[in-house]
Structures are given as C-alpha cells and as structure tokens.
Design goal:
- It is built from 8 helices and 5 strands, in the order E-H-H-H-H-E-H-H-H-E-E-E-H.
- By secondary structure, the protein is an alpha+beta fold.
- The chain folds into 2 domains: 62 residues, no CATH class; 53 residues, no CATH class.
- The strands form 2 sheets. A 3-stranded antiparallel sheet has the order 3-4-5. The protein has a two-stranded parallel ribbon with strand order 1-2.
Length: 136
C-alpha cells in the first residue's frame, strides 16, 4: 500500500509522523522532548520497529521546491540548496534582490519588513494547531 509523506507544510508532515508512529499529537512532545531528551538518535531507536515497517518502495514524498537565480546557478553551485530561512537571513542573491525592493526579514523575531513596515510572519499563529498542544 502506498504511503504519502506530505512535507509541503508542517501540519501535514506531523500528521504523517503521528500516523506512522501510531501516537497522538500530545504524546509526541513528551516522547521526543522528555523521554528521548531532545535527541533524535534516541527517539529513532525508540521507534525503530515502526520505521522498519515502512515499505520504502511504496513511500511517495510530496514536496515543493522553487528556485530561481540570475547568476547562472553560481550561488547554488557554491553553497548548495539552502534552507529559505538561511537564504533570507544571510547575504545571498535573493536577500540582496529583496533588499533592493525594500523587503527584508528578521527570522529570529519572525518578522518581515516592507518599506519599513513590520509584518508578523509567525507560521504558528496561522495554523489550526490546538493552542493547548503548543504549550506542551
């Protein structure tokens, strides 16, 4: 049976993870943070049986990646494909282009600026996650 791992948004990715690990949303935080001490290797070892049940040949990834450039891919060849947060935060072709258009980002504060006006871009504020789950 095919399994679709949708990583086009965090909510869909987490729902898939809960399904594969057969756990409830509220259990993930306590399992990863408390019982595995925020250590991925420990968490993975604890759930190795569930991971081994996946038929990798039947796993389909759903992802989105968009890129463009004006330098013949020189920056991509030099730095590879980087996380959008890094590209927006560091000096890059994209961040330079956006600054020329009076757009810049303060990633740690989750704020975008356009012509000096601040806009809140905190993704968590725009999802349908239960607020009680976010506090755990």
């Amino acid at each position: 049976m095919q399994s679709y791992y949708d990583i086009t948004n965090p909510d869909a990715a987490y729902e898939w993870l809960y399904s594969v690990l057969d756990m409830k949303r509220r259990d993930f935080i306590s399992d990863y943070v408390l019982e595995s001490r925020n250590d991925f290797d420990t968490f993975f070892e604890r759930h190795l049986k569930e991971a081994e049940r996946l038929d990798i040949d039947q796993l389909k990834l759903m992802a989105i990646h968009v890129t463009t450039n004006g330098d013949g891919c020189a920056e991509i060849k030099k730095n590879g494909l980087r996380d959008l947060k890094k590209v927006l935060q560091e000096k890059s072709e994209l961040s330079t282009f956006l600054r020329e258009k009076n757009i810049w980002f303060d990633i740690p504060s989750k704020t975008m600026y356009f012509n000096g006006k601040a806009f809140d871009i905190d993704y968590q504020k725009y999802t349908n996650l239960n607020r009680a789950d976010r506090k755990n």
